[in-house]
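Lab notebook, bench 4. Still working through the backlog of constructs that have no structural model yet. Next entry is a single chain of 130 residues. Request: give me the structure tokens for it.
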Amino acid sequence: MTKKIIRTDNAPAPVGPYNQAIAASGTLIFVAGQIPLDPTTGEIIGADDVVQQTEQVMANLEAILTAAGATFEDVVKTTVFLADMNDFAVVNQVYAKYFNAESAPARACVEVSRLPKNVLVEIECVAALG
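Model written out:
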């Protein structure tokens, strides 16, 4: 198996010992969980606004997918982490703008006790090329 590190300045730099994404054998791209960090300032977007935070998370995912030569159409699996499951419907409305219901990826959504930097939402994904 070959692996290629995917990095872009259009999404936040990792805040720990991981990469934004890894392309495995040229066909699968594993994108690390993204939180609502502004890639330029490193600041959290949307303070306590889960809609703004989700929009920024999706923008960060899109930037990384683009750097890897992929789009949201190539995403086959996502995992959504919420600080509060009561935000599910609102996050789902934002998420639905990026994925067509008929071809949307498989997804898991879980509530967690805490997310990095105390954000409200984090999303990771796997995309397939070719």
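Notes after review: Residues 47 and 53 are 8 Å apart (CA to CA). The longest helix spans residues 50-67. Flag for follow-up if needed.
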